[in-house]
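Notes from the 1:1 (GR / supervisor)

We went over the backlog. Supervisor wanted to see one worked example end to end before approving the batch request, so GR pasted a single chain during the call. The sequence is below; no edits were made to it. Supervisor asked that the structure be written out right there so they could see what the output format looks like.
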Amino acid sequence: MNPSLSNAIWFKSSYSSAQMDCVEVAFLREGFVGVRDSKNRTGPALVFTPGEWDSFTAHIASGELDRPQP
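Structure output shown during the call:
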């Protein structure tokens, strides 16, 4: 798995602050999804397969990945 990131169109959540303290996402060819640090746009990016991304977002939506409250 090595999809090209050269023509990726990156975006961040509308819930993000203007301070760039967040991640950016790009939907790539063949369903792959790229994720990078908005503070380091030339740095490395994670790339998820369609199944991995669907699983990740489903777990977020269900609350399974919420940080435990002290």
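Supervisor's comment: The beta strands are 23-27, 33-37, 45-48.
Batch request approved.
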